[in-house]
## 1
Amino acid sequence: MFSLSYPFLHLSLYNTEIKSLTYPLLHLLSFSLIFSILSHILHLRNKQTNPIFLNPSVMAYEIGGVRYEEEFVLNSRGMKFFTCRWLPANCEPKALIFLCHGYAMESSISMKGTGTRLAKAGYGVYGMDYEGHGKSSGLQGYVPNFDEVVTDCSDHYTRISERKENMEKLRILMGESMGGAVALLLHRKKPSFWDGAVLVAPMCKIADDVRPPALVVNVLTKLCRIIPTWKIIPTPDIIDVAFRDPKVRQEIRSNPYCYKGRPRLLTGNQLLKVSLDLEQRLEEVSIPFLIVHGAEDKVTDPSVSNLLYESACSKDKSFKLYPGMWHSLTYGELPENIDVVFEDVTLWLDDRVAMRETQLEHEQKFENDELLKGKSAIKTV
């Protein structure tokens, strides 16, 4: 469900249910026309976009030294997308952080703590809700094309980065769970554009012990063409194992912008394809990164994060494993544990900013030295 990275992957946890589903699903294929009609009827009945504000003006407020702003923007396909940002109220941001939220989650509520903490630490933090998520347009919980999710994020975050006031600032991606996959694909899309990434329990490979049987994957993939929006993927309600703090569990269950149903068929298929693709190309990751992962995570496998750490060709890479912590480290953990995680994240970010400042100082000194050499040569002549 919410931060669930692999809605397709939990199939193997239900071998009995899979076996009971396989025959009926195969049987359904022979009635493709009937299901196509039913799918169309169901889609019309359920088709609804998440709430959107029609007022184009920016909503903003300031509290505790942080300025929060939100607005809707149009993507390249003419869809309305919810965007938000947390900025230091009394100083210029020392770097830019771009958030990529998890599956079925959203930005303004579940990532508020992240945005506020990092803005208080001096960073400009930007978020957006994907298609079918949060307050953005689209059928709730439906991701028809993962490439379009990446393109939407890339377009919006690139525009922000290329504003005149942001041109010299570091650009850091921060992705949690499925958002980790989004961050890695953003890096792949523009390998030299992003300056770093913070990956929180990222979705970057399918663990062998939860890989769905090939026959089931084949059947469900074919059904995606007929009933793409149907919620028929059997998965458990994992709120109780992903979010450790009981208060946060209740917040998520009462949050109308978090998707709460079973994964839609095409959505699960898209996440499966992305996971397989990332798994085969981990060694191509070259961006500086920090991975943080809870050792007791039951949603994404910490050993997979370790594999990413070992496989990536990045020269600047770090991996933090937290004993006893669960999946959601920035929102659902115990408050004292969240403090520990953000202390590590902020320290890593501050180090990258300091390295950048040192680099700029060296570049400026080199330019000054070259200028002085040029003037000296002119005088000699």
## 2
Amino acid sequence: MADTLVNVAKRSVVVDGFTNSVLDPNEPMLGPLQSGGTIIANTAPGCWGPMITPQLRGGHEVTRPVYIEGAEIGDGVVVRIRDISVTSMATASGHDSVSNQYCLGDPFVAARCPVCDETWPETHIEGVGQDSVRCNKCGNPVKPFAIAHGYTVVFDDAQEIGLTLNKAAAERLAENADHYASLPDQSVQHSILNYAPADLVGAMVRMRPFLGQLGTTPSKAMPDSHNAGDFGAFLVGAPHPYALTEEELQQHKTDGHMDIDAVRPGAVLVCPVKVKGAGVYMGDMHASQGDGEIAGHTMDVAGSVTLQVEVLKNYNNDGPVLFPLLEDLPPLAKPFSTGEKKRAAKLAQQWGLETVEEVAPISVIGTAAGMNAAIVNGLERAAKLLDMSVPEVRNRATINGAIEIGRDPGVIQVTFLAPLSNLDKAGLGDIAREQYNL
């Protein structure tokens, strides 16, 4: 990381590679990038591809982090998502089952060959199907994950509709898996298209791409997929080198792994800075997903991303805050119309109120091992950020918002209309005004 400090900050950075699925603050970053500059990246699929690639040490294959000039610990970075475009022509996914004989405690982090007893073995592809990933040393199939019920899907050229295939068509794609997956040149993952699952046939799907991973580098090395309160809980007391205590997890994670479907073009995400330079990274693009990602996985794809990033000084939150597109807000969290404001002003005059508060939407992310604890985390973060009590946040989220599920088991959004005066004190008011034309 020290090498980046002597370089002149750039107006744009093109990301040219990936981590080994571990976010390590001691590894060199790309850049530096000027505050307000642009990051352009070609991302690799997350989830299933890395999950069946034992040499990778996390559930995704994210981009190398970018150093942002002027970002200090305790600041935030404002990430404006300018573009997300799918480049994969097809993908495969499904609900998983786990075999503990193929891992050291955690199949996402420490895959092993049960014959060689080697952790993170190098592997290759032989044939098609769920035994196609084989150990280079002994030739044994290595499969910490199996697909219990899965599908292969192809996308139309307009990137609007997908269709799930039968077994014969899925196996035909598998013969040229890396091509149809559009794996970036520097990606090392095996494409999940090699598995050719086909339990769900002839189903149409809508494409609505977003990033499952977008955030800043944690202040201690951790697997990328575990940079969140729910997946991160698997690191607590784990029997592999990336084990953390509960206190370390809470201190160092930045909750970059959200799987929130509103993290899409036009949205604005504010992320905490826990290492000098922030280390902005991304990955795990999804072609689409319903709230909660209830199957555990969705349609992971390669794609191109353009972000604009600027530093926000003294950000009073240890996790992300999202300003979604207007259409992605819950009905009660949408800004009030001019007509509604006039009717409220009339009521105020009628009942002797001097003012009606000005409000704007905000979505505060909460994560934890389980859903209830994630909700509490989100409420507490919102209260601290906006200088409110937790009961006040509960009331506002109830009458002017909603609790939304990002991912089962433990990522949520506390979305509500907050007073602009409080947002201004938190340094977020102008972001809300710009985002919602207030």
## 3
Amino acid sequence: MAEIREQKLLHHALVIPCPFQGHINPAIHLSLKLASKGFIITFINTEFIHSQITKSQSTDPNIFSKARESGLDIRYSTISDGFPLDFDRNLNSLPFLEGLINGFSVHVDELIGKLMSDNCVDDHPITCLIADSFFVWPSIVAKKYELVNVSFFTEPALVFALYYHLDLLEENGHFGSDENRKDRVNYIPGVKSIEASDLPSLFQNSVVHQLIYKAFQDVRKSDIIIANTVQELEPETITSIQEKHNFYAIGPIVSANFTDLTIPSSLWSEYDCTQWLDVKPRGSVLYVSFGSVALVNKEDILELAHGLMLSEVNFIWVLRFNILGQDEKSILPLGYEEKVKDRGLIVPWCNQTKVISHSAIGGFLSHCGWNSVVESIWCGVPLICSPLVTDQLANRKLVVYDWKVGINLRDGESITREEVCDKIKYLINEETSSNLRKTSAQVKETFHNALATNGSSNVNFNKFVDELKMKISLA
């Protein structure tokens, strides 16, 4: 009996994602996969994120209720992020990030203390913290409660290496000087060479710089680091990181691989595009989306609208209500939707994986958020890349120049309708984009193979689980 009780004590992980859509989704799928390995999971969303999901999905307050019914022990709690529910986190992104840096850990500490007390009563104390790498507090909290500290990086190893070596970028004048150098960066360990224009734009903002600097000082103190990438696609970068840390590439973390369960996670109501897509020819539709957070200026939206019209290609365009930073009704040219109604579907939000996995989709015009890149590659859909902020610029480098599964949209300083039209026509035409489609199919195969029984990511995940259990037993 004592042996059984000890076994139970080893496997309870607390999972806390950053409160953004692109971080919540992979954290949910990671939780499902760990639960399928016998872990008890307590998943923490902020109260705001929880309210958005339940409002948009009309779902059970416990988003993991179906997972629990299937036998997975995933518990669910919510926590304040320090702001009122009606505070506009998108429009006031910098004050919100400052709150995450300076005040969020107090709420985390309070919740973990309560959960630890409650869990001790039912003989399932939390023994492991799996927190997003962009938090600044995990090492402090993990040390206080004697938890094994796992840092979960939801982006590629290239971006991890750049953030990790922010000090080198500062020393060499590519960041933090009055005139940042514009020449290529060739001194980051594990990174062959990268244009200064491909460095994450986070570096140009003082608040976000503070967040990245503090977060990656904290990442250095973690016991294990796991990342949503694939060993074969970033071998040199991953090997370099592994020389300093227990780092496991366990991607792609996409829902299709881990479970048939549908876990509600969308922050907005999803329009069902299936019927519209079902009547379109195979590979004839361009999917356009700039993700859940990034803001786009109105001039670019208008050029994109005209370019889509000039291309005469079928398209689904996700035009988020707050894509300009506020709810503006007249984003598109007057009468635009009527003019394109026969071949264009404009929606406020949709289930992206459901759309891009449809046979009618022939390309994805994307902001290059990492989740979008991963999902597109998983489905073998080539990309047109129009990165806006943060890691998206470095992700574009991987997509366009390293893996050659996409093309760049913006060759000049700004988007033009003529360029939009030309790039769309090139991508959707199977003859002109034949080489791109061949490489997309090859990288897709690499993604799928990584999750096979003997695939690198599956092997790495099992090694991660084994090391995690070992460290828990020694804690």
## 4
Amino acid sequence: MTVKEIPLIIGGEKIRSKSDTWLDVLNPATQEVVARVPVATNDEVTAALNSAAEAFKSWSKVSLTNRMRIMLQFQQLVREHTQELAELVTLEHGKTLPDAVGEVGRALEAIENACLITRLQLGEMANNAATDVDTYTLHKPLGVGLGITAFNFPLMLPAFMFPAAIACGNTFILKPSEQDPSSTIRLVELAIEAGIPAGVLNVVHGGEAVVNQLISSEEVKAVSFIGSTAIGTQVYDLAGKHGKRAQAMMGAKNHMVIMPDANKDRAINDLLGSAFGAAGQRCMANPVTILVGETRNWLPEIVERAKLMKVGPGTQLDADLGPVVSPQAKARIISLLDSGVEQGANILVDGRNCQVKGYPNGNFVGPTLFTGVTTDMDIYTQEIFGPALCVLEADTLDEAIAIINANPNGNGTSLFTSSGWAARKFENDIDVGQVGINVPIPVPVAYFSFTGSRGSKLGDLGPNGKQVVSFWTYTKSVTARWFEPDHQDGSTVHTTISLK
């Protein structure tokens, strides 16, 4: 089988890199090499920067209407290529095909939000703010934007970034994950096919050196990052050092609280789906549940249902979860699961030695469930990013809220209850940016902004919704007075700053 080479995209063209360093892209279910991706050279990164900077001169002057029309065409092409995109995700990431199709849907939501740019990128005006003086604001594009995305959503995360940035009149350089780049490249190809002009959207690949070169460049004006806390902090700090606007959506440790009055079957099924779906490789997964009061008696049923979940390759349509992305990821996950046992947690479902028939080399980790977990254990303090669930118990909702608020992360949390009073108390008292009420993964629809908080986010503005326009534009205020052609103002010199 011929192994495809992942291209760079610079100036609207697919470019074969001249790099001496190429990385293998593996099918996580088989370890088969399915593609090779280059680490871009300094000259190639410079070419992408120059291409984006040059394209900005004309693209920033394109009308809102024409930018919107391109986004409308783009969303239609993505919709038509849903299956193709999903299959590429499954091939290189490993998530199940239904889950990958769902990711295409979430990416579409973000693209559709960019289609609303004619309504989102509106300024304000005060007519006669002072006598014969008008004041108004303009939301102007910044210049070249940079997006750096993680492996776990190779379609959705780029869609959180470049469609809105480009719709606002910026040009863009995308630096996707090297672990599963094919679906991202295909997404960009569809965007260019939709009519995005040459140089407006570029793609380069690489690690820390490439990222540092991009952030440090004069051309880049704003940086959007989604990934781990360690790397996100470095990116944010470097961007700040160089005077860039930045946002970093980072790690998490989300909690689902289950109250005794919750719908039992729905709560258990949603808990297991959110903890183990995508093999736990979601920043919005629920790797911790807090069983309140009598719900601790539901534990045997939670355990039994977890044991029934099917592990298999992403192409196996009845699989509940596929492999994790790489052997390195599997080794890290197993090490953390081992530490849970070593530190005294009770492992009631053990997926460490998961074997899938016909796939002896796959990166499979089965659903794993711990009880007796304390908040100082590594399995609680660290983001496992694998199919592991830590079960804690609390006597009251107040105790559960206190546990969550003591955790440094603030990405998402959920409460399952039938009580409106409990739901309202939870959403008001909890110190977390995204809250689900009987919703296990509280990522809002894309016309609302992604609002993680505390240790899960750096920067004031999140992707999507109205905030996305604030991030990708700057506000220019204009105060204007127009005089009649033969206006005479006399000889008085005005030395005050007042407008009347």
